[in-house]
Specification:
alpha+beta, 3 helices, two-stranded antiparallel sheet, Glutaredoxin, 12% strand, globular
Length: 78
């Protein structure tokens, strides 16, 4: 739960105007870590067999909520 809380804080800080809330919902299944934006799954730990890096998660969220937003040092390398 600590990792999820940290990621939520990072997302709320990065997407102040675009994301108006984050819901952390404990799962009956241990190890579940699914990130959804308006019902769209943008990351599923089980499908990827790993947790996302903060930079990666910010990019995935940005691509859905505000594709034109720059992320500074978290932006993809061109």
């Amino acid at each position: 739960m600590l990792r999820a809380a940290y990621m939520a804080q990072e997302l709320l800080t990065t997407f102040t105007d675009e994301v108006h809330g984050v819901l952390l919902q404990p799962s009956q299944t241990g190890g579940a870590y699914i990130v959804r934006v308006d019902g769209l799954t943008v990351f599923d730990r089980k499908a990827h067999s790993r947790f996302p890096e903060v930079k990666e998660l910010k990019q995935l969220i940005r691509d859905v909520v505000c594709p034109e937003k720059g992320l500074g040092h978290s932006d993809k390398s061109v």
